[in-house]
């Protein structure tokens, strides 16, 4: 079964959050390795949207079943965003494959996640 999730975030809102709470705030939803990848507020917003879109694709949202730190983001050698779940959550949700796309424009970051689940 294929499931899709999408999320859109105001870059300005994420930038204000990052300025106010700095790295301590970013650690609420990003790991240290993810923080090392973000260079701009639009990157941070894109990563936030990606994690929210993943949770929506899995039909659970961020909460008891799935936390921000269960969703792992990285980049390919070409700079494309990559998405993975912890092995525990891959098994829990019966995930076969994940795909992520992030875009930024007009003060917003949007992410789309497609998840292929075992039948």
From TrEMBL:
Mg(2+) binds at residues 7, 52. It catalyses: apo-[ACP] + CoA = holo-[ACP] + adenosine 3',5'-bisphosphate + H(+). Its cofactor is Mg(2+). The keyword Magnesium applies. Coiled coil: none annotated. InterPro entries: 4-PPantetheinyl_Trfase_dom, 4-PPantetheinyl_Trfase_dom_sf, ACPS, Ppantetheine-prot_Trfase_dom. Residues 4-112 form the 4'-phosphopantetheinyl transferase domain. Keywords: Cytoplasm, Fatty acid biosynthesis, Fatty acid metabolism, Lipid biosynthesis, Lipid metabolism, Magnesium, Metal-binding, Transferase. It is found in: Cytoplasm. It holds the Pfam family ACPS. Its EC number is 2.7.8.7. The keyword Lipid metabolism applies. GO terms for molecular function: holo-[acyl-carrier-protein] synthase activity. Belongs to the P-Pant transferase superfamily. AcpS family. Transfers the 4'-phosphopantetheine moiety from coenzyme A to a Ser of acyl-carrier-protein. HAMAP family: AcpS. This is Holo-[acyl-carrier-protein] synthase. It comes from Helicobacter turcicus. The gene is acpS.
